[in-house]
Design goal:
Helix content: over 70%
Keywords: Cell membrane, Membrane, Transmembrane, Transmembrane helix, Transport
Subcellular location: Cell membrane
Oligomer: single chain
Membrane topology: Multi-pass membrane protein
Structural class: mainly alpha
Distance between the termini: 35 Å
CATH superfamily: Sodium:dicarboxylate symporter
Pfam family, one: SDF
GO biological process, one term: dicarboxylic acid transport
CATH architecture: Orthogonal Bundle
Number of helices: 18
Length: about 425
C-alpha cells in the first residue's frame, strides 16, 4: 500500500524520536540532513510568494479590483487580523511552551524596531532586487501586490498577456520545486526530530500536545465570534447560519484542504446560505488564493510557543510585528502543498527566532491543518455572506429551512433519504 506524504512525515517524526531516544548523541549528526531540508524550503519562499501574489491579482476579473474587490479585501484583512490576534493572545494567556526550556544553537532574540517610522518604512522596498536577494518577505509582498494590481489594469485588453503567462509559468515551476523538496520532508523532519530528541528527550512532545489543544480552542472561539458577528451584520438567524455551515466545516476538517473543500463551499454558500452566484464566484475562489484566517492564527500562536520555549521576551511592538507578519505570510502560501511549513519558513527566520523550532511544528502539521482549514473556509464563506448582504444579493429564506432543506434539494437535484 502506497503511503501518503502526510503518513510518511508522521512516520519520519516518530522514527526520528525513536532514534534519538535509543542512540542519543551518537546519531546527533543526522540533524545536518534536517538543516539541509530547511534551507531547501527557505530557498523557494521568496520566489513562490512573488509569483503567487502577482498571479492571483493579475488574474482577477476587472470588476474584482473595483468596489466589490476593495470591500472583499477589507473583510479578508479584518478577519485575518482578528484571527492572528486571538492566536497571539491565547498563546500569551495559556502559555503552551511553559515548563520546557530549550537552548538555541545560535544566540537569538526578538528585536522590536526602535521607532514606528522605521517599522513603516521597512515595509516598502528601495530596490526590489535587493529585497529579493536579502529575502525580505514583507517588501517582496508589497511590491508583488502593487505589480499585480498594475498588471491587472494594464492587461484589460490582453496587451500584457505574455507577461502574465510568464509569471504563471514561473509560479508553476516554483510550486513544482516545493513539491520536489516536500518529497524529502519525511527524512528532513525525521532528522530534525533526532536533534530535538537528543537535546531535550520526550519533554518536547508535551508543549506540542498543549499547542494543539490551545489551537483547537482558539479556532472555536474565532468561529463563534465570526458567526455571531455575521448573524448580526447580515440579519440572519444564528441557528440557520450554523446549520448551513455543517457540511462545509465537516468536509474542511476531514480533508484538511481548502482546494478540495471549494466545490462544496461554493455549492452550500449558494444553496444553503443564500449567497448569489455572482458573489459566490468572486469571493470564494479569491479567498482560497489570498485569505487564510486559520493560518494567520496558527502562525501567531506558533510564535508565542517558540518565544516561550526559548525564553525570549516579546514587547508590545514585537506583538504587533508578529500579528502583521502572520497576516502577510499567508499571501501566496494558502494553496501551496505544505503551505503551513512554507509559512513557518517565512515567519520564523524573519522574526529572528531559531529555525530549528520549525521541526517541532512540522510533525504535527497535519493535525494543525484540520483546524486551519475549517477556519479558512468558514472565514471565506462568512465574508461572502457579508458582501452579499451589502449588495442585496442574500436570500434570507434559505435560513428558514432545515439543514437539508427543500431549497437545497431542489437546486442540487438530489433527493433526501
Amino acid at each position: 500500500m502506497k503511503l501518503t506524504l502526510t503518513t510518511q512525515i508522521m512516520l519520519g517524526m516518530v522514527g526520528g524520536i525513536l532514534l534519538g531516544i535509543l542512540f542519543g548523541p551518537a546519531v546527533g549528526g543526522l540533524k545536518l540532513l534536517g538543516d539541509i531540508f530547511l534551507r531547501l524550503i527557505q530557498m523557494t519562499v521568496v520566489l513562490l510568494i512573488f509569483g503567487a501574489v502577482i498571479e492571483a491579482l493579475g488574474n482577477l476579473p476587472a470588476n474584482a479590483l473595483g468596489r466589490l474587490g476593495l470591500k472583499t479585501a477589507l473583510w479578508f484583512l479584518g478577519t485575518t487580523i482578528v484571527a492572528a490576534a486571538i492566536g497571539l493572545l491565547m498563546g500569551l494567556w495559556l502559555k503552551p511552551g511553559a515548563g520546557l526550556h530549550l537552548t538555541p544553537h545560535t544566540p537569538t532574540t526578538v528585536k522590536a524596531p526602535a521607532k514606528l517610522r522605521e517599522t513603516v518604512l521597512g515595509f516598502f522596498p528601495q530596490n526590489i532586487f535587493a529585497s529579493l536577494s536579502q529575502g525580505n518577505v514583507i517588501q517582496v509582498i508589497v511590491f508583488a501586490i502593487l505589480f499585480g494590481v498594475v498588471l491587472n489594469q494594464a492587461n484589460r485588453h490582453h496587451q500584457f498577456e505574455a507577461v502574465l503567462n510568464l509569471v504563471k509559468q514561473v509560479n508553476q515551476l516554483a510550486v513544482r520545486l516545493v513539491l520536489l523538496v516536500m518529497h524529502l520532508a519525511p527524512i528532513g523532519i525525521g532528522a530534525l526530530m533526532v536533534g530535538v530528541t537528543v537535546d531535550t528527550g520526550l519533554k518536547a512532545l508535551i508543549p506540542l500536545l498543549k499547542f494543539l489543544a490551545i489551537y483547537g480552542l482558539s479556532t472555536g472561539i474565532f468561529l463563534a465570534i465570526l458567526l455571531l458577528v455575521i448573524s448580526w451584520y447580515a440579519k440572519v438567524p444564528l441557528k440557520g447560519l450554523v446549520n448551513g455551515f455543517t457540511r462545509i466545516a465537516l468536509v474542511a476538517f476531514t480533508t484538511t484542504s481548502s482546494a478540495v473543500s471549494l466545490p462544496i463551499e461554493m455549492a452550500d454558500a449558494h444553496d444553503r446560505l443564500g449567497v448569489s452566484q455572482r458573489i459566490t464566484q468572486l469571493v470564494l475562489p479569491l479567498g482560497m488564493a489570498l485569505n487564510s484566517n486559520g493560518l494567520a492564527m496558527y502562525l501567531a500562536l506558533v510564535c508565542t510557543l517558540v518565544t516561550q520555549l526559548y525564553q525570549l521576551q516579546i514587547s508590545f511592538a514585537g506583538m504587533v510585528q508578529i500579528v502583521s507578519l502572520s497576516v502577510l505570510a499567508c499571501l501566496g502560501t494558502v494553496v501551496v502543498p505544505g503551505g503551513g511549513l512554507v509559512a513557518l519558513a517565512i515567519i520564523i527566520p524573519t522574526l529572528g527566532l531559531p529555525t530549528e523550532s520549525i521541526a517541532l511544528l512540522a510533525g504535527i502539521d497535519w493535525f494543525s491543518g484540520m483546524f486551519r482549514t475549517v477556519a479558512n473556509v468558514v472565514g471565506d464563506t462568512t465574508t461572502a455572506i457579508a458582501i452579499a448582504s451589502d449588495e442585496h444579493e442574500l436570500d434570507r429564506q434559505a435560513y428558514t429551512h432545515s439543514t437539508l432543506n427543500p431549497h437545497f434539494l431542489r437546486r442540487s437535484g438530489t433527493k433526501g433519504n
